[in-house]
Amino acid sequence: MDTPAARTSDTPPPVDVVGRVAALLRVLSDGEPAGVTTSAAARACGLARPTAHRLLTSLATAGLAERDEHGAWLLGPELFLLGNAAAQRYDVTSVAVPFLRRLSAATGESAFLSVRRGDDTVCLAREDGSFPIRSHVLHEGIRFPLGVASAGLALLAFLPDSEVSDILRRLELTTSYGEAHSATALRERIAATRRDGWSLNPGLIVEGSWGMAAAVFDADEQPRWALSLTGIEHRFSAQRQRELGPLLLREAHALSKAIAQRG
Predict the structure, then answer these.
(1) pTM tops 0.90, yes or no
(2) Helix, strand or coil for residue 240?
(3) pLDDT under 70: residue ranges of the chain
């Protein structure tokens, strides 16, 4: 019998199949709508290509993934049904839509709702503004680590210091996002966000594409969502930041209250 006491130090740890499947589904989500090749999915998850192919084939059999005529993998139709069932408990998009519309109408910029998922943020919804030139960094389904983009910074800034330290130890962002996302640089932006109440991304992901965000809190006063505005650099001058910041904070506070009242 294989008990923990019977294992030796040379015994390999058990394979985390669920973790691998979850990682593959996240990669497929990031690859929508174009899809992801087997090789790209394997690289992104740190898996051997045959392993990735076997898992993706199993997901397709279950309806959780599918393959198009070009061989690219996509999310499967069963996920839509599962998502609809889960939305009854987790989705606040319908509550947030009026707030997004007010923000986009008042500013002319694109407004977004993002949610925290573990060490990441995921964009849930967008409302395009009237200004004809837009930033295309954010779109529904895109995922960024906490501390990256204005939404991720707003959420990170309002977590307890101990949790911030744990997250910064886990995440190594400079490889993918540059030295502007080192722990030292992030702590400086966290301090500024706590001081101002809202966060600023001055073109750190895509040059010339700026964003601002404010955290939205749940009934336990924990930061779980963020409202953000994105646009081109000249639309986010220091003077306009002083106009947009209070507007974001007002709508974020009102949305926090609406979510809490929903129960």
Answers:
(1) no
(2) helix
(3) 1-13, 84, 86-90, 132-136, 263
- CA gap 198, 214 in Å, rounded: 5
| Closest C-alpha to 216, from 251, 164, 262 | 251
Residue 50: asked if its preceding bond is cis (omega within 30°), the reply is no
In terms of residues, how long is the chain?
263
137 close to 201: Cβ distance less than 8 angstroms: no
CATH of 86-262, one of 2.40.160.120, 3.40.50.1470, 3.30.450.40, 3.60.20.10: 3.30.450.40
Encoded tokens for 82: 């599962």
Closest CA to 150 of 237, 226, 92: 226
Q: Which alpha helices (H) appear in 131-224, and where do they start and end?
A: 149-157, 161-170, 174-177, 183-196
Contact 170, 147 (CB under 8 A): no
- For every residue of 97-148, DSSP letters joined together read HHHHHHHHHHHSSEEEEEEEETTEEEEEEEE--S-SS---S--TT-EEETTS
SS3 57: helix
Residue 113 identity: L
Question: What would the CATH number be for the domain defined by 17-79?
Answer: 1.10.10.10
Outline which parts of the chain fall under CATH 1.10.10.10. 17-79
C-alpha distance from residue 174 to each of 116, 169, 177, 210 (Å): 21, 12, 5, 19
pLDDT tens-place string over residues 141-183? 888 999 999 999 999 999 999 999 999 999 989 999 999 999 9
Question: CA-CA distance, 212 to 238, in Å (whole number)?
Answer: 12
- pLDDT at residue 2 in the model: 47
Q: How far apart are CA 215 and CA 104, in angstroms?
A: 17
